[in-house]
Amino acid sequence: MEWNLEEKIELLRIEMMNVANKKGLTADETIGASRKLDNLMDQYEELKKKLIVNV
């Protein structure tokens, strides 16, 4: 099953919050998940910009 970008963002956000609750906000695992989430959100914003330009 392939997830769309919005679903991936939401799943990673939930995962990051769970890790942060268990290991703390400054844990390497939490920071890694946050960086991945930032990258996905950047991709999402770029796609939105392209869609607006192509309308």
Structural class label: mainly alpha
Biggest pleated sheet = none
Order of helices and strands: HH
What does the overall shape look like?
Answer: elongated
Question: Counting H and I runs of at least 4 residues, what is the number of helices?
Answer: 2
> What is the typical, i.e. mean, pLDDT?
92
Q: Span between N and C termini?
A: 29 Å
Q: Radius of gyration in whole Å, from Cα?
A: 13 Å
What does this structure look like?
By secondary structure, the protein is mainly α. Helices cover 82% and strands 0% of the residues. The protein contains 2 helices and no strands. The chain has helices at 5-23, 28-53. The longest helix has 26 residues, at 28-53. It is elongated and about 45 Å long.
Features:
single chain; 55 residues; mainly alpha; 2 helices; 0% strand; elongated
In short:
The chain has 55 residues and is an all-alpha fold.
Q: How are the elements arranged and paired?
A:
Blueprint: H1 5-23, H2 28-53
Helix pairs in contact: 1-2
